[in-house]
Design brief:
Transferase(Phosphotransferase), domain 1; 346 residues; 2 domains; single chain; Phosphorylase Kinase, domain 1; 10 helices; alpha+beta
Length: 346
């Protein structure tokens, strides 16, 4: 079963069988006994639970977070590569939350589910209008990328035009996910946008611009900020689930928002911190809008591929309507214009 699998029968979705009792049984199978207090945490791609343990062994936290990976999305080798990357970050004293080693392993299997267990970490989203916060995050991103550049992923995929853009567009059209009254306009805008991406600097990744192991989904929700008066205060990076090979700027651009002036100031703060530890290839700034375009197309395909999972219709009720797709046409047209503007300069 591949990551492109569409579960067409919601009543038989694999997660339907993941009851609280089975979550506790899975933890019990590796010697972690819950005391019955279990809380589902916000997660769409996977299922994640906070579990209070009963009489945890020395060195094991009293409260853990158990992640049950979506069946069929990643292979065992790909999950182990993610865990190895997280372990390398932890060894470099980078505050990335990664799985605990339980009985000599970070990845476990219970019936059809792979799962892992992490320590619980609290925090709030970072204040990205604070230059000091941006600089701090930039320093840690540089350190993450230094570790990421040491070795390549061999099992996990790369962020590229084919997988994120072309395959996403073709899947949506072949599965007739775009309403007929919008399909022609969306196909035209999407194809034009992808042609611009194909002709642009993204083609230099792997030839002139060096790819490396990335966080891959470094948006503000995946950075937990804790008070700086604590010994471990500052940013904690969570959720390496989308880690893959790609250009360094992929882990920076999702932290930028607002108009061009605001984004330039935010990028300046990130790079001020980043370049204290690692050089940054300024040619990658021209990749920001192409990468944003690919994410826009990939996001629609992701929602469509997961639609038979009951959690998706409940949380994204607006998806699939003509209004949604008309909005996507407008955003793609905006991206076509943005990709033809000069890149940000700092």
């Amino acid at each position: 079963m591949s990551s492109d699998t569409l579960f067409t029968d919601a009543a038989r979705h694999p997660y339907d069988s993941l009851t609280p009792d089975r979550v506790l049984d899975a933890l019990d199978s590796i010697g972690l006994v819950g005391d019955g207090r279990l809380m589902a945490l916000s997660s769409y791609e996977n299922r994640v639970y906070q579990v209070q343990l009963q009489d945890p062994a020395e060195g094991t936290p009293e409260v853990v977070v158990a992640k049950f990976y979506r069946p069929g999305r990643w292979s065992e080798a790909q999950l182990l590569e993610e865990h190895a990357f997280g372990a390398a970050l932890a060894q470099a004293e980078i505050p990335a939350v990664c799985p605990l080693v339980v009985h000599g392993a970070t990845l476990h299997r219970f019936e059809e589910f792979f799962f892992s267990v992490c320590p619980r970490r609290g925090g709030r989203p970072p204040e990205l209008d604070d230059f000091e916060v941006l600089e701090w995050i930039g320093r840690f991103l540089a350190r993450i990328h230094t570790v990421g550049a040491a070795l390549p992923f061999t099992a996990r995929p790369a962020l590229d035009l084919a997988s994120f853009g072309t395959a996403s567009r073709d899947w949506l059209l072949s599965h007739q996910m775009v309403p007929l009254d919008v399909q022609a306009d969306w196909d035209k805008a999407c194809t034009q946008a992808l042609e611009i991406v194909a002709a642009g600097p993204l083609a230099q990744v792997g030839q002139g611009i060096a790819p490396l192991r990335l966080h891959g989904d470094c948006h503000p929700g995946n950075i937990l900020w804790t008070p700086t008066d604590r010994p471990d205060g500052g940013p904690h990076f969570v959720d390496l689930d989308d880690a893959r090979m790609g250009p360094a700027v992929q882990d920076l651009w999702m932290l930028l928002s607002g108009d061009r002036r605001q984004r330039t100031l935010q990028l300046s703060g990130l790079l001020d911190g980043y370049e204290q530890f690692r050089s940054f290839d300024r040619r990658e700034l021209a990749l920001i809008e192409p990468l944003r375009t690919l994410r826009l197309i990939h996001y629609s395909a992701w929602l469509a591929r997961r639609w038979a999972d009951p959690i998706f219709p409940a949380n994204f009720p607006w998806f699939g309507s003509s209004d949604y797709w008309q909005g996507q046409v407008v955003m793609l047209q905006d991206q076509i214009e943005a990709m033809q503007e000069p890149p940000l300069v700092v």
